[in-house]
Amino acid sequence: MSQSSEDLASPWNPVPKGLEGVIVANTMISKIDGKKGRLIYRGYDIQDLAGNVPFEAVAFLLWVGHLPNPLELDTFRKNLAEHRHISSDVRSFLEGTPHEADPLVVLRTAVSTMGLRPTKKDSILEDGLNLASQFPIILSYFQHMRNDEEIIEPRKDLGHASNYIYMLTGEVPSKEHEHALDSYLTLLADHGMNASTFSARVTISTLSDIYSAIVSAIGTLKGPLHGGAPSKVWEMLQEIGQAENVTPWLKERIANKERIMGFGHRIYRTEDPRSKILKKLAKEIANPDTFALASLVESEARKLLQEEHPDRPLDTNVEFYSSLVLNAGGIPTDMFTATFACARSFGWVAHIMEQLADNRIYRPDSEYVGPLDLSVPKMYDAKK
Ligand SMILES: CC(C)(COP(=O)(O)OP(=O)(O)OC[C@H]1O[C@@H](n2cnc3c(N)ncnc32)[C@H](O)[C@@H]1OP(=O)(O)O)[C@@H](O)C(=O)NCCC(=O)NCCS
Fold first, then answer.
1. What does the CA dihedral 135, 138, 143, 145 come to, rounded to 10 degrees?
2. Is the confidence at residue 3, as pLDDT, over 50?
3. Is residue 177 among the annotated active site residues?
4. 44: enclosing H helix or E strand
């Protein structure tokens, strides 16, 4: 006799779907307060960091644990700039890449290619510098290659944000645009135990290598429920097009139980604090008509989602206004998620370092809820 899955499912040990509320590690890197809508990096509120502290100093904070003094900051900046070159392996890979490929998939495969010849120094810091410095280069090379344009080589005298925009567009960004992209990088650099960070930590916990861990993280970031949303937000705004379409467009999607991209979050039960800052930045640099349309979509969607889900506040998340900031910064729409990866690479590397400093392999358990003691059908009986 066999037991059905219902017999075996234990009501006393329900598995939290999506691991909601499950703490999988102690971390000193970042903390999210979902009720108050706060995000803290190693003790500092992101409201105080974004736009005030240069992104390179925030990256140093995440990796090293304290804000750098002027000498440390200068050295770290130089180190990042010195690593702005790709290997011949990565270059050959990019030259053979189909032009229509998704830039995030190109980035993921380029990181795999980097892992063919890991750095001889065998140091996570060296590998981290290599990875984080080269993400923007890989993307801008690909952008020019797919458009049959001349490659724009990196400049060592520019900051991380400026160099990326320069390499993509051929123009050094204005102070306003540099400030917006620098703040964007800070806001997106880390975010607790998000899905891609967890992937990176699981992979490195087996004592695999950093390139494999970052490949896992990029693959996880790709989905629209995580990092794949900002281009979808942009497409939504384009599709809605004008103010009079906002309400009917949203009503139709909500009635069909479709998700509105750029809204909702697993942890925040109020507005995502990053969204507030990105909204201000978008107001400064985005096209005013697009900003007005996005603000209208925000208020209308919030109202309609509230009616549909009265017990679950569904506010804008980081992706909503990111799409406006990235578009105004000259980033192609299909590179929004890959640009998110440029920022988050710093958080992934910080978590990889933290995991390795006190490692134990991640090996959770599962509750088997399938049948037991089934008899193999006679047709498979070898003795027959
Ligand atoms: C971010 C997200 C994945 C969080 O997921 P989660 O914590 O697992 O939330 P759930 O999937 O359990 O959703 C809970 C309820 O809210 C609804 N909901 C959540 N986000 C929604 C959205 N953006 N639009 C419409 N409804 C939404 C769900 O349909 C679900 O409704 P139900 O209980 O009637 O089935 C989710 O809010 C989402 O899909 N947002 C849109 C994609 C996005 O912006 N991603 C970027 C994240 S930074």
1. 180
2. no
3. no
4. strand 44-45
Q: Whose CA is nearest to atom 45 of ligand 1?
A: 225
Ligand 1 pocket, 191 CB below 6 A? no
Is the Cβ–Cβ distance between 317 and 262 less than 8 Å?
yes
Q: How far is the CA of 314 from the centre of ligand 1 (A)?
A: 8
Q: Which two tokens stand for residue 124?
A: 């996570």
Per-residue pLDDT tens over the stretch 92-120: 999 999 999 999 999 999 999 999 987 77
User: What is d(CA 105, CA 181) in angstroms, rounded to the nearest whole number?
Assistant: 22
The predicted model scores a pTM of 0.93
- Domains of the chain (ranges; CATH) run 30-224+349-357 (1.10.580.10), 229-326 (1.10.230.10)
Ligand 1 site-directed mutation target among 314, 321, 337, 340, most atoms within 8 Å of CB: 314
Pocket-testing residue among 253, 265, 274, 315, ligand 1, by greatest number of atoms within 8 A of Cβ: 265
Ligand 1 atom index nearest CA of 233:
44
Which residues, other chains included, contact 111 with Cβ-Cβ below 8 Å and sequence gap of 6+?
131, 211, 214, 215, 218
Q: What is the DSSP string of 303-326?
A: HHHHHH-TTS---B-HHHHHHHHH
* pLDDT for res 324: 97
Q: What is the pLDDT of residues 233-271, one digit of tens each?
A: 999 999 999 999 999 999 999 999 999 999 999 999 888
Task: Produce one character per residue of 291-324: b if its CB has 16 or more CB atoms within 10 Å, e if not.
Answer: bebbeebbebbbebbeeeeeeebbbbbbbbbbbb
Specify whether 265 is catalytic: yes
- Is the shortest distance between the CB of 280 and ligand 1 below 6 Å? no
Q: Facing residues of 38 across strands?
A: 33
Residue 266 in contact with ligand 1 by CB distance below 6 A: yes
169 CB-near residues (< 8 Å, 6+ apart) = 330
Q: Confirm or reject: Cβ of 265 under 6 Å from ligand 1.
A: yes
Judge whether 205 and 354 are in contact, CB under 8 Å.
no
